[in-house]
Amino acid sequence: MAVKTITIDLEAYDKLASLKKEGESFSKLIKRIVSTKSSTAADLLKNLPRIALSRETLDQLDEVVRERDLHYPDALTFGEA
C-alpha cells in the first residue's frame, strides 16, 4: 500500500492521539473521523461531543433562533412536547 507523509503541529497531534482507540493506527483514526456522516438528528447528537463551534458560529445560531422565534412564535422549542 502506498503511503504519504504529512506534517501536523503538536496540538493537532495531541488532539488526534486523544481520539485514537487502543490499537488503532492514525490512518484508521483519520478515516473514521473523516468518513463519519451525520444524516439524522441521532447521528448529530452522538457526534456533538466531538464538534467544536467558534463563538461566531454560536452567535449566528443564537441569531437564527431569535429570528425564528419572531417569525414563528408558536413553534415548538427544544425539549417541549
Key attributes of the depicted protein:
81 residues; mainly alpha; 54% helix; elongated
Short description, anyone?
The chain is mainly alpha-helical and 81 residues long.
Question: What are the SSEs and their pairings?
Answer:
Layout: H1 10-19, H2 26-35, H3 41-47, H4 55-71
- The string of secondary-structure elements, in order, is HHHH
Output mean pLDDT.
83
Q: List segments where confidence is low: pLDDT < 50 over at least 5 consecutive residues.
A: none
**How many E-type strands?**
0
Give the terminus-to-terminus CA distance. Answer: 53 Å
Radius of gyration of CA atoms, rounded to a whole number: 19 Å
Largest sheet: none
User: What class, by secondary structure content?
Assistant: mainly alpha
Strand content: under 5%
Considering DSSP H and I runs of 4 or more, what fraction of the residues is helical? 40-55%
Number of helices: 4
The 3D shape can be described as elongated
Fold and architecture overview:
- This protein is 54% helix and 0% strand.
- By secondary structure, the protein is mainly α.
- It has a domain at 24-71.
- The longest helix is centred in the last third of the chain and has 17 residues, at 55-71.
- It is elongated, with a radius of gyration of 19 Å.
- The chain starts with 9 loop residues before the first helix and ends in a 10-residue tail after the last helix.
- The mean pLDDT is 83.
